[in-house]
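Readers of this paper often ask what the protein records in our data store actually look like. Such a record has a labelled line for the sequence and another for the backbone structure tokens. The tokens are whole numbers drawn from a learned vocabulary of local backbone shapes. We quote a single record here, exactly as it is kept in our systems:
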Amino acid sequence: MLYFYRRSFDKDKTLSEHNKILRQTVYDLLYNTVMKQKQLNDCSELQFKYNKYGKPYFRLYPDVFFNISHCREMAVCSIDDVENGVDIELIRNYPVRVPEKAFSEREKEMLAQSSRADSMFFRIWTLKESYVKALGIGISYPLNTAEFLIENDCISSFVSGDYHFKQILIGESHVCSLCLKGAGRNSVIRLKNENEFFCLDL
């Protein structure tokens, strides 16, 4: 399940305050969801532990797999019974130096040929980020070796291990990618949801 929280940047005084509210809101969504699942009365049992790369998990409930991401004006929390990773980004001018190190040759060619390069960059980038977050090893993974080729709404993934991907395009402003451990079909979902809170059961 994916839980989304949208918040206008204009509501907050600073970027730091904005990010803090986004993070805290999706963590509250995480706690409330797991408390209902596990029939808990309070969140005192939901203590985090971290793997050696800093990925959190619940000390008493290692069977609950979750991941959190936020960017300007939106945050997301993924909760599932399998390892997962999620990344969300505001589509904007992309950092032109990143593809040289992080993209494969075919990805760089696809980016160069795209009529919407900013959107294409963040579609590829969030897929890569969701994958390494699912692996739980962070930026230590050589991103250019995880390859994603996108043609319209068809995603071909070339990664190590058994994973599949869901990509959610939220209007023209945000892109979110979810990586799930296990066999499955890659797919793209297009949303025009403008609600403050919304969720997707994938």
Remarks:
- The chain has a mean pLDDT of 95.
- DSSP finds four helices and twelve strands in the chain.
